[in-house]
Predict the structure.
Amino acid sequence: MTAERVLVAAGWALVGALLGLLIRRVSVYLARKEDLEPGFERWQVWGPPILGAALFAVFGLVIGPQPLLLIRSLWVAVLVQVIFFDLEHRLILDRVMFPAMLLAIVLSDFTPNLGWKLSLATGFGAGLLFLLIAVAGAAIFKREALGFGDVKLAAFMGLILGIAPTVPEPPIITALFLGVLLAGAAGVAMMVLKIKALRDTFAYGPYLAAGAVITLLSLGAQ
């Protein structure tokens, strides 16, 4: 670990904190546009800047000063917004996901082991998989088992991760597996602690987003 990387991480943490504050302000604005009342508990207000600072610092440390850091950090910012907005409102916004998906396709040509064709193919495949799961779940359980916001999030994850042939496991598969695993563990924990019952609504988005963040970090500069 060089002194340069440490300095980059420290400076990038500040950028992440400031961007997190902006994310919070934008999320409050978007919530009101959707006729939702934003909460002002400490985790809702300070969660985005704290998590943004921590994640930007780690990505700055791992990737270092290069254009890829800007691209990966942009995806981290989108995922941080998804995490906190979905936790608060049980909603993943089209106003966030559609522009992010378009930008993901554009920037895929500047991302190692990706490119727009692979990005589109992986995004379509991941979105289709989760769409089928959503439809099957609704048919089996007679209620919404997976929201269509989660379907769009899965497609976005496919667009930014692809199936990089230089790593043992396709990144999108790793991210989705981690997301489902984290969601399952959280769901079981909530039921054991009697925070939620079996048929209560559950926000999957934050856990899918966490799987994407972990996978992006594991890719490093690849």
In short: The mean pLDDT is 91.
